[in-house]
Amino acid sequence: MSWTGWFIFFLVVQVIHFLGTWKLYVKAGRQAWEAAVPVYNAVVLMKIINRPWWWVILLFIPIVNLIMFPVIWVETIRSFGRNSTADTWLAILTLGLYTFYISYTQDVTYIEDRSLHPKSTAGEWISSILFAVVAATIVHTYFMQPFTIPTSSLEKTLLVGDFLFVSKFHYGARTPMTPLALPMVHDTVPKVGIKSYLSYPEIPYFRLPGFQDIKNNDIVVFNWPIDEFEDIGPPGKGYAYKPIDKKSNYVKRCVGIPGDSLEVRDGYVFIDGKKNDLPDRARLQFSYGLTLKKSMNPSIIRGRYDITDNIYPPTERRPFSIISAATEEAAEKLKANPSVADVFRLKQEKGIRDAGVFPHDPQYNWNTDNFGPILIPKAGMTVDIDTKSIPLYKRIIEVYEGSEMRFDNKVSVTGNQVMLNGAPLTSYTFKQDYYWMMGDNRNNSQDARMWGYVPFNHVVGKPVFVWLSIDGNAKGISNKIRWERLFTTVGGDGKPVSYLNYFLIGLVALLGFNFFRKRKKSSKK
Q: Which of 102, 133, 207, 324 is the S-S candidate for 172 at Cβ 3.0 to 4.6 Å?
């Protein structure tokens, strides 16, 4: 739904609100016209139901307002003496339209000084839970979101089993695009496996201002651009479209930012012709072949030489073992072992085409080890379009800068002419910024080399803190927790430093303060 559509919907809601409540406003000692003025009518209503004015703000926050509107409907009828369970359910099930029945058919009296405290323990619990959910949803949506590292594509910097806090405000919090959704869950309801949202209506993309731009080598959480696609093609028959904010969350390193010229040479990234200089916490890993003079236990090799991923034994067709991920330092140490005959990089040579690599076009003989150069689009940048360049930008034009839900931009090639929606296309100016996301585990990472650019409207946030880290392969509860990683920062130089002790001291201080504050408050009664 466009902003125009939402504005019309807002006006319709205002008319319905006025017709259903103006008599109640009058009975509460207010003027009828006050029920008709958008926003102001909500402020006045908060005074009528004896609730703080800032509740009005909560009514305009997507997802949160799904909780607040039923609360307001119930609070309104209770301010006029309708406190029964039946009244409560009727207000909720009719989406607030029960006020029409009360306004026009019932002789109700406004209760100005009604008690705001729940009349039962159950009511008190429900009230506490509702507002805890509201507070948590605001934090989750606009400030910090928990996130788990599921794969080893950024191994050494972020480990499988790390639990992160992802900042939404560094790059600017993105408002939800799916307003009809359960709070604090992603695309499915846990354990149940059903969708947690309705695809329609959608709120147009909007992002609050951030205080930091994405820089080269930042680690970024984003929505996987091709989540609803099959084999990098349009959705198959019966496959449901997924809104941007409900696509799968991925975390990668942003090696290329808008305006960069990027190339991958033998697995190393070059920006504008210069080799990318990674932070000291980053450790590039590659796949290696391993030949032995005599047999060695793979588990010993993995533990002694800091091998990230699996070691596969030789086969009849392949006389050497495969190390799926190791750093260059680990490979050199392993090569010095007297039982090792050779350790060598496994890579694809330049000019050999991998059909699974972006842009999936026979004109480009690229692979994951030798790729590009490509230009990363920047908002306002104009590029020439022809049959050679269009494979690089087709998805941007058709999907990211068209309508992802309707796929209403159609790019086609007729002879030597590129067409957009039936009209010749010779140049294109980009509407938003794009980024190039890759994993440090270069031969074991599903990243931009397979699916291309990440639009800025898909960016979720910046990982800032590891609050828990669990080693799923370790035995024993104590050994499973990587204690040295608890409460460490994601960014920074040198070995991560744990701030767990500072957190515990702060927690004890806070609990002590609350204890003495409550004790002092009770002694005054």
A: 207
